[in-house]
Amino acid sequence: MFTGMVEELGRVRSRQGRRFTVAARTVLDGLHIGDSIAHNGCCLTVVEVGDGWYGVDIVDETLARTNLGELAPGDPVNLERPLRASDRLGGHLVQGHVDGVGEIVGAAPTLEVRMPPDLIRYVVEKGTISVDGVSLTVAKALPDGFSAAVVPHTASVTTLGHKGPGDRVNLEVDLVAKYVERLLAGTGER
């Protein structure tokens, strides 16, 4: 479980097939093989650790459902370690399971994102959404997506300050909204 409070802007160091290595500092503190790190909001398992870098393997399913396959060496990536039980919840509950990929139509500071039609029902004004792993508050629900204010600090320490119209972003909608929808549907599953 994550919070959407990005700890560090890492850089893709290399990419060989499905193996990505990421240059980082902060998230390396106490990092072990088998640990999870969110990359642009997508939870990946660490498979190797080196001096100033670590490696992850990305499976075909993840490449098909996220923007991670578009990353190249040198590209920035939002990094966050999982929430510890003793941590403050500064953002919102984020699983690291990307629900879909949206497209930026208006850059920060007033970020506007077009999103897949099947996710729009989860977007509500003043609700939360994770954009490339960044916890944001929805300023306005739009017919084809949403807008959100990105404060200067967030723009400077995440990928959101580097992205513009046409760029694709990973989206994770509110977890509680998905559970409420499922409960209200009355599927009877146990």
What topology does this entry show?
Elements: E1 8-16, E2 19-23, E3 36-39, E4 42-50, E5 53-57, H1 60-65, E6 76-80, E7 100-106, E8 110-114, E9 128-131, E10 134-142, E11 145-149, H2 152-157, E12 168-173, H3 175-185
Can you offer a commentary on this structure?
The chain contains three helices and twelve strands; from the N terminus they run βββββαββββββαβα. By secondary structure, the chain is mostly beta strands. The chain folds into two domains: 8-80, Elongation Factor Tu (Ef-tu), domain 3 (Beta Barrel), CATH 2.40.30.20; 100-184, Elongation Factor Tu (Ef-tu), domain 3, CATH 2.40.30. The chain has a six-stranded antiparallel β-barrel with strand order 1-2-5-4-3-6. It is globular, with a radius of gyration of 16 Å. The chain starts with 7 loop residues before the first strand and ends in a 5-residue tail after the last helix.
| Tally of distinct domains | 2
Please tell me how large the radius of gyration is. 16 Å
Show unreliable segments: none
Classification by helices and strands: mainly beta
CATH architecture of the largest domain: Beta Barrel
The pLDDT mean sits at: 94
Approximate strand percentage: 35-45%
Strand order in the largest sheet: 1-2-5-4-3-6
The top level CATH class name of the largest domain = Mainly Beta
Q: What is the helix content?
A: 10-25%
Number of helices: 3
The span between the termini is 23 Å
The main β sheet shows up as:
6 strands, antiparallel, barrel
CATH topology of the largest domain: Elongation Factor Tu (Ef-tu), domain 3
